[in-house]
Amino acid sequence: QVHLVESGGGLVQAGSSLRLSCVASGGTFGTYRMGWYRQAPGKEREFVADVSTSGLNTYYADSVKGRFTISRDNARNTVFLQMNNLKPEDTAIYYCNAQSVSGSPLAWGQGTQVTVSS
Question: Over 90: is that where the pLDDT of 93 sits?
């Protein structure tokens, strides 16, 4: 069973950058579609970005397009989320997610807090 651990969150000012990492253990990382989701206080968890097994195909929520970049390193069982030009509305707990290629959810990480001050 795959286990996911996120890191890299923090408190930053608007306009700053952060890079989140999610390391997977167990299972076969290269066969999982990987994604990032976030949940702000009082809101539903929402999709941020995901990446195909090869890393060649990426998808983003409209709210982060042009600012966030998802990537993966299959040799290190790690998926990244580079977040640039952060805005206060990006404040949330960010969760890493693994899915089978058919879209079945396999695991969630424990989350990492990102707080952006204005």
Answer: yes
